[in-house]
Design a protein that fits this description.
heterodimer, A: about 500 residues, alpha/beta, Rossmann fold, six-stranded mixed sheet, 23 strands, about 35% helix, about 25% strand, disordered C terminus, B: about 325 residues, mainly alpha, two-stranded antiparallel sheet, about 70% helix, disordered N terminus
Chain lengths: ~500, ~325
């Protein structure tokens, strides 16, 4: 079987976004009758690779081959014609349309130029039966649970009778029963000679279902081998453990006995039953797979979403802040992950972006002093090495410099607690280094830092302690001595610690 | 756009002013005035131009509130109804004990400000879309007006109101003087206070503004409250100029206020703009209306011409760049 011609393959593909390489010369070949696992940490380049395979992105170099022939102009329609179907992680369904309409969308059977609804229903029914969807086909997708929608998404892919099926974390929202149905289905499709690419963070599923594995780490392929003879611990090791080099500052404990934030039985958004204590002078990491509720923990503490707690002490005062201005008054500052939408006003000058938290707190009708604002902004720009004319719109800045503005704007407030949401996402290495040094400097200055990160090495090298979040709960609190990428990833994925530590 | 060089700072600043939307709109007004005075006799007479600016003052004051709302990312479709409420409602507050006529004016302004605050309440706390909230408010007010005033016109025997509408201290109509004072205050609040900075932030990105600590609810309410106040003030001036108030007297000011804001270069999407543009925008609107009146056409054709000219002007003076 290994000698058969791959239906879809990438040969030495590279891709960079804004100068940051995301994939470096990666090859993968999807062969008929094989379930191929693609593993890697958040940001390892998995999604980019899928987008290259499905034609949504073009590689900077390297080729995509279909049936052994290089395609020069790979595009989504081209991919569909070649029988490549992708089940995306972000659901691509239209809530107001019915199950049948969603499944057939873009490929409706026609009759006299009109949609042939009976034929659509018949074909959609066949696809639904395969995945065990028994809801009436006219049900609007918006009324279905997340797991059922995922099944609709898979049925939509099957409706197109694919030769290659790419599944991006299909089971993350499925129940045990649904997962079992999917597993059986994939076994069946495999025996019919379909090539399947399976991305999952659940290692037990991968071990059970897949025959071949490709592991990505920082955009480089670290393994491309049959799954036989590999165990879960070995896979985890292949995914993590890059050389940190001198990216991170030296770690010294600056932790004090003063409590900056202490909550018990805290609940906000997806998060439940959180007991957390952050001391002044320490960096507490929040780890876990993307979207387990970590962001709600920060937003809840910050008063941006409703939150409650059995007891809460923040910066020597009891109770959670009811809203953002109150949180700011009590010494909390929050740097969002999505800096373009949540952190900055891109169409406004850098100087007003830097001054906004101050404007929010000043008396509303006090006259502004442009000269003093400029002076403050210049000071911040100097301190944070923000390059660029302060009078220009923030959108002129690079991602790294934008992130520094989003961080710097809080400094005039002198916050006691800094809540950071993935501050180095999409930031170049040099800026990462600067941000890391700043974080440790904050801690050394007696401030408390809560660092939510999807970048595991960051958590290992910067934090005093790391709370790992899974399905809305803090499942482990790792102390400095226990911190390792293996330990965090294992906890995040729910792998047995002794298996991962092997 | 231009590279700021310390040596050429003054020069680049002049360039920035000359190429700014408010300045360009002023230039268009001047150009139209000059051309029209040659073409049409009497157009360029001081009395006529003064009359145009007096008419523009009402639009300009309504547009002041509208500019606040639009910059903060909303829109106020109830301004016309509020103008009418003020013009028709003022006589109801007449008190014989106050010979100056100040009390009814203050009462009306308090009332229209309160109407605006209710708009703001709906938008900020009940999360009703600004269009729906203010349109519903307008419909509600129109119904109320019909019940109270019916079809009859009301006359205000208020000395202060007639003064605002007709007096000309130093040869300048009082309405224009009010507009000048309002313009000064509005420009200061908009561009020289933290409150103004919060509006721009809210309009450019409400989520980023919220997470930066901007008090969204109270600022939103303030903005609609200001718009209600301005519409009320405009209603009082209209009543003074007309001598009579009737249902429908405020109707022309809805589109006019929005058109003045947009002609002045304020982004309808919020976050960018200045009242300095709405001022010439209001004058330009009145000028166009006057020009069309000069052209001897039927009301239908006048309306078509008016719409076409506004569209053409907007296309000329630059459409909005796409935002990401």
């Amino acid at each position: 079987m290994a000698s058969s011609v791959p239906i879809l393959a990438a040969r030495g593909v590279s891709k960079a976004f804004f100068g940051n390489p995301v994939l470096r010369s990666v090859s993968i070949s999807l062969e008929p009758g094989r379930v191929h696992a693609l593993l890697g940490e958040n940001g390892a380049g998995k999604s980019t690779l899928i987008n290259l395979l499905s034609g949504a992105l073009r590689p900077d170099s390297g080729t995509i081959e279909i049936d052994g022939k290089a395609v020069s102009r790979h595009s989504p329609p081209e991919a569909r014609r070649a029988g490549i179907a992708v089940v995306q992680q972000e659901l691509s369904l239209t809530n107001s349309l019915s199950i049948a309409e969603n499944i057939g969308l873009g490929a409706y059977p026609r009759r006299f130029g009109l949609v042939d609804y009976p034929a659509l229903a018949a074909r959609a029914k066949a696809a639904c039966d395969l995945v065990g969807l028994h809801e009436p086909l006219s049900t609007p997708v918006g009324e279905l649970s997340l797991g059922r929608r995922q099944m609709v998404e898979i049925a939509k892919a099957l409706y197109r009778k694919p030769r290659v099926l790419i599944l991006d974390e299909p089971t993350s929202s499925l129940s045990a029963t649904e997962t079992r149905i999917l597993t059986t289905l994939l076994e069946k499709l495999r025996s019919e000679g379909i090539a399947i690419l399976y991305i999952s963070h659940r290692l037990d599923e991968v071990m059970q279902l897949c025959q071949h594995v490709t592991v990505l780490k920082d955009g480089i392929c670290t393994a491309d081998r049959p799954l036989e003879g590999v165990n879960a611990a070995g896979l985890v090791r292949l995914m993590v453990g890059r050389d940190p080099g001198d990216l991170f500052p030296r770690w010294d404990s600056t932790r004090t006995e003063r409590v900056a934030v202490s909550v018990s039985r805290f609940a906000a958004g997806l998060m439940r039953d959180v007991d957390l204590e952050v001391r002044a002078g320490e960096v507490v990491g929040i780890g876990g797979l993307v979207g387990q509720g970590q962001e709600d923990l920060l937003l809840g503490l910050y008063g941006a979403i409703p939150a409650k707690a059995a007891s809460a002490v923040i910066h020597d005062a009891a109770g959670l802040p009811a809203n953002v201005p109150q949180a700011n008054t009590r010494g909390l500052a929050y740097v969002p992950a999505d800096r373009k939408r949540e952190g900055l006003h891109l169409i406004h000058p850098i100087v007003t972006n830097l001054m906004l938290p101050a404007f929010a707190r000043m008396p509303a009708l006090k006259l502004r002093s442009r000269a003093r604002e400029r002076e403050t902004a210049m000071g911040l720009a100097l301190q944070f090495a923000i390059k660029g004319d302060l009078g220009r719109a923030a959108q002129a800045l690079s991602g790294g410099n934008q992130q520094k503005v989003a961080l710097a704007k809080w400094m005039p407030l002198d916050p006691a607690v800094l809540l950071l949401n993935d501050p180095t996402r999409g930031v170049d290495v040099e800026t990462k280094r600067e941000i890391y040094a700043m974080l440790r400097a904050f801690a050394a200055a007696g401030k408390a830092v809560v660092l939510l990160s999807s970048d595991t090495p960051e958590l290992v090298h910067l934090c005093d302690r790391v709370a790992v979040v899974r399905e809305g709960r803090v499942i482990t609190l790792l102390e400095r001595g226990e911190l390792s990428e293996e330990a965090i990833v294992a906890a995040a994925m729910g792998a047995e610690p002794e298996r991962a530590a092997a | 756009m231009s590279i700021r060089d310390a040596g050429f700072l003054s020069r680049s600043r002049i360039l920035a002013v000359v190429t700014s939307r408010p300045f360009l709109t002023f230039a268009i007004v001047a150009l139209v005035w000059i051309v029209a005075s040659f073409v049409s006799r009497g157009f360029g007479a001081y009395g006529h131009l003064r009359y145009l600016v007096e008419l523009a003052a009402v639009i300009g004051i309504v547009a002041a509130g509208q500019t606040f709302v639009v910059i903060a990312g909303g829109i106020d479709l109830s301004v016309a109804a509020i103008v009418t409420v003020a013009a028709v409602g003022l006589p109801l507050f007449a008190i014989d004990a106050d010979p100056t006529g100040l009390t009814p004016i203050l009462a009306v302004l308090a009332m229209t400000t309160a109407i605006g605050l209710v708009n703001g309440l709906g938008v900020a706390l009940l999360r009703v879309h600004p269009m729906i909230m203010t349109l519903a408010m307008a419909t509600f007010l129109q119904g109320l007006l019909i019940i109270i005033a019916g079809g009859s016109a009301v006359t205000a025997a208020n000395p202060l109101v007639s003064w605002v509408g007709n007096a000309r201290p130093f040869g300048v109509p009082a309405g224009i003087l009010v507009w000048v004072v309002i313009s000064f205050v509005v420009l200061v609040v908009m561009h020289a206070t933290p409150f103004g900075a919060r509006l721009f932030a809210m309009g450019a990105g409400p989520l980023a503004a919220k997470l930066s600590g901007v008090p969204i609810a109270s600022t939103t309410m303030a903005v609609y409250g200001i718009s209600g106040f301005m519409s009320g003030l405009a209603g009082i001036i209209v009543l003074g100029m007309n001598g009579q108030g009737y249902v429908g007297i405020g109707d022309p000011y809805l589109l006019a206020s929005i058109a003045a804001v947009v002609l002045g270069g304020t982004s309808i999407l919020g976050g960018l703009g200045t009242y300095a543009g709405s001022i010439p925008g209001a004058i330009l609107l009145v000028t166009i209306t006057a020009l069309i009146t000069v052209v001897n056409a039927s009301p239908g054709w006048r309306s078509i011409l008016f719409g076409t000219l506004i569209l053409a002007l907007l296309l000329l003076s630059g459409r909005e760049a796409a935002r990401r």
